Amino acid sequence: MSSEEFEKLHEIYRSLYEELKLIPERALSCHGEERKRLVRTFDERQGEAEEVLQGMEDELRAAPPSYRNVMSTKLRLYRRDLGKLQRDMKTSAPAGSFRQPTHLQSQRALLLQGTESLNNASQSIERSQRIASETEKIGTEVIEELGEQREQLDRARNRLVNTGENLSRSRKILRSISRRLVTNKLLLAVIILMELAILGAVVYLKFFR
User: At residue 50, does pLDDT exceed 50?
Assistant: First the structure.
């Protein structure tokens, strides 16, 4: 909804108003069937004008705040002018000339009400579809994000498994190195003892025999 639609309804109302405002004066100079015909015409055009004003009021409720004051002022003026024309017509036409709303007017009012209800239902469906589409989009994005997070977790788990295997191999290597160091120390100790024994034997043989 926008002020553009309001302006379209404004043009329709102005056209109806220009036609309506001529009828009271013409009714003063007419009699009999001609006057009754003018009264019927006034009734029909007035009903159409009321429907247009109702449409303008609906547009007013949905209009942006920046347009609302101007549109509200116009609507009040139009209702005032239409009320004045009704009073003028009652003065111009004899009592009893105004009839209750015709069957055609009742049908038009029901049609307008049904159309408005259908438009409201269509808008509600559109909003529901838009919300469903947005929800589906969000759900798809969440699923994609969860998939990416799962891949990251799988990669992290694989890295942890590889790290565990590397640590296990490192522990084995360290144990092997530790055993070799112990063996080397024992061998070194044996060699030192043998060298000391040999050195002692040499000293004994050289100095004591």
Answer: yes
* Residue tagged 């759900």 (tokens): 139
Residue 98 pLDDT exceeds 80: no
Mean pLDDT of 82-99: 70
Average pLDDT for 151-165: 86
Answering whether pTM is above 0.70, one says no
| Ordered domains of the chain (ranges, CATH) | 3-145 (1.20.58.400)
DSSP assignment of the chain equals: --HHHHHHHHHHHHHHHHHHTTHHHHHHT--HHHHHHHHHHHHHHHHHHHHHHHHHHHHHHHS-HHHHHHHHHHHHHHHHHHHHHHHHHHHHSPTT-SPPPPHHHHHHHHHHHHHHHHHHHHHHHHHHHHHHHHHHHHHHHHHHHHHHHHHHHHHHHHHHHHHHHHHHHHHHHHHHHHHHHHHHHHHHHHHHHHHHHHHHHHHHHHH--
